[in-house]
Amino acid sequence: MGDNNPPSEKPLLTDPPFYLPEFEESHQYILNEYAVEPKDIGIFIPCAMRKPYSASPSHQLIKMVISQVFSDDQYHIVVFGTCGIVPSELEEMYPYAHYKYMLGKCKDQKVLDDFLRIETDRVAGYLEKTRHLYRYRIAYCLGIFREAFIRGAEQAGVEIDLILPTTDVINLIVEQGDCAFQEGSLSMDEYLGEFCEELIRFRNRIYR
Fold it and tell me: Could you tell me the pTM of the whole model?
């Protein structure tokens, strides 16, 4: 989007991506032009530092768990966070594979507040677009990403059928207090184990 240079020749974007016009243009393309394939379940997971997202060790672990529970034709993975919100099959589209930014290192409250506001709106827009394309919605997220997703769902009036990790497991990790981030990482065994167990329960309930 923008100029005619192929994505491989685009410069690496290092400013907070949620402010950049490239991400707003791509978001509008997804909302207004891109045809999302209907699926039973939309599964929403946070973006990752490594690009494309599928190369991230955490995404590989998360997707391995999902694939053990659901067949490919039952679900659609959507990535969200500092990138906005993007169907995972578009992960190599510019600018989604061409930025480097970690919100977790940001201490500027205005930037954090701006992210929450912008991402809430983008999540709400995508959930509204896909309101009738998914029968169920599952989110696997922590921290400010989780807050933005919950707010976006409330703004759109769309139900989140399952959000993980559960508060009990998050509190347990916080109490242990030995993580780089307060709530730890989604790739931790405690979180992944619960994720797998709850997905199995959810599958057994909706497909009984």
Answer: 0.92
